[in-house]
Every structure is written in C-alpha cells, then in structure tokens.
Amino acid sequence: MGREFVEIFDAWADSYDASVSGQDEEYAAVFEHYDTILEEVAAKAIGHTIEFGPGTGNLTEKLLAKGLDVTAYEPNNAMRMRTQERFHALNISDGDFLDFELKEHPDTFVSTYAFHHLTDEEKAKAAKIYASKLSTGGQIIFADTIFETEEAKLDQWKKVEQQGYKNLLEDLKREYYTTIPVMNELLDEAGFSTSFKRLNEYVWLIHSVKK
Ligand SMILES: C[S@@+](CC[C@H](N)C(=O)[O-])C[C@H]1O[C@@H](n2cnc3c(N)ncnc32)[C@H](O)[C@@H]1O
Questions:
Q1: What is the pLDDT of residue 1?
Q2: In whole angstroms, what is the distance from residue 88 CA to residue 174 CA?
Q3: Which GO terms describe its biological process (predicted)?
C-alpha cells in the first residue's frame, strides 16, 4: 500500500539532485529554497528520528550532522542503495510510511517531498500508527506540496497548464496532493496538534505534536 509510485524513482535516482538544484525548469518552483526547507525540518527534529523516503539522502545528511540517531525507510532500491553508500553507518531499510519495523522508541517522524504518495485514507492510517508509537510531545515534521483549498489546487493546475509544464501537471494530477483542512483533520483525529507554514509556492512545513 502506498508504493504505487516507487518505480518512478528508478529513472529519477540519477538526475534527482539536478532537479532539486533547480536545473529542471518545470520543477524549479517546487524545489525553490530546497536546502532551507530541509534545514527547517532538521532544526525541529530531536532524539531518535525516523525518516521516510530519504531519496538521495539530502535531509538525512542534515539530521546526521545534528548528531541525531536516525533510522531511515526507503522503498526504492536505487535510492536506498545510493543513501546507504553515502552514509555507510546509517540504519536504512526497505520500508515505507505504513510498513516499517521499529526496534526502538521514536521521538520524531520526518519526511520531505514524499507524504503525497499516500492517499488521504492512507495518510490517516499512517498518522494513527505514528500516534501509537510516540509519547506525548512526540513530533511529526513533514514538508510537502499541499494546497490551502481544493480551489487553490485547481487554480494551480490551470497555472501550470498555461506555463506548458506537462510533466509537472501530470504529476500534480496523478499523485495524492491534499489540502490543509484535510491534513489538519486527519492529524487531529489521530491525536496531534498541527501547525502549517508556507515554505515556497508548493511546499508547506507540517508540524504536528502529539497531545
Ligand atoms: C521526491 S523524492 C524525495 C526525496 C527526499 N526526501 C528529498 O526531500 O529530496 C520521494 C521519495 O519518496 C519515496 N517513496 C515513494 N513512495 C513511498 C512510500 N509509500 N513510503 C515512503 N517513501 C516513499 C521515493 O522512493 C523517493 O525516494
């Protein structure tokens, strides 16, 4: 479940870091302030930190530089091998947002540019799993593309169509980019108090604390 987009990253593993650095014009606005976005997530993480979908390991690098104890789960083989080669000592396994084996108590769940791979129903299920594993005060810190409303999402589709960005438009329509009210409600139902902060035209910081 939630793994239907994993194979897309077989082809993207080699060129992903070029995309995040703004070399892919269609995705330049999505990855604007990429480094600062990762910094914002890493700055809030504490203790045993669980990272989902590290890709090439750019957020992982910042978490490790902070001295955090990181456990990572990456379902794409090419991406997982890349990150394992980059950080030999990193504890990284095949796993995903919904299916991961946890041996030690977590303090923080982090992820960037990945939670939209789950449907809203799956996101709600994931939030309940994280709530069951965290103590009071434990955190979820995700950064991802999310829209203020359904109307804002449709307006963005129109804008991207006018820009002629066919790949980005297909991506925005294909994957499960949700809205802030939906995300807030599913996190609230799982027992989290959540704040949202805009980080660029697409990406918001989603910071939830277990009540
Ligand atoms: C756009 S990349 C983001 C990589 C990295 N987190 C970053 O910020 O640059 C999305 C990553 O999510 C992973 N992914 C896809 N489906 C997933 C799932 N269901 N659970 C966890 N990770 C998933 C992909 O394999 C890929 O590595």
A1: 62
A2: 34
A3: methylation
Q: Could you say which of 3.40.50.150, 3.40.50.300, 1.10.287.1080, 3.30.310.40 is the CATH number of the domain covering 8-210?
A: 3.40.50.150
Tokens 């396994």 belong to: 93
- Mean pLDDT for all residues in the chain: 96
* Atom nearest to 37 CA in ligand 1: 8
112 burial via Cβ count (<10 Å: 0-12, 13-18, 19+): buried
Q: Which residues form the pocket of ligand 1, taking CB atoms under 6 Å from any ligand atom? A: 2-3, 5-6, 9, 20, 52-55, 58-59, 74-76, 79, 96-97, 112-114, 117
Adjacent-strand bridge partners of 135: none
For the stretch 3-53, pLDDT in tens is 888 888 888 888 899 889 999 999 999 999 999 999 999 999 999 999 999
Q: Quick one: pLDDT at residue 6?
A: 87
Neighbouring CB atoms inside 10 A of 171's CB total 19
**Pocket test residue of 9, 61, 115 for ligand 1, highest count of atoms within 8 A of CB:** 9
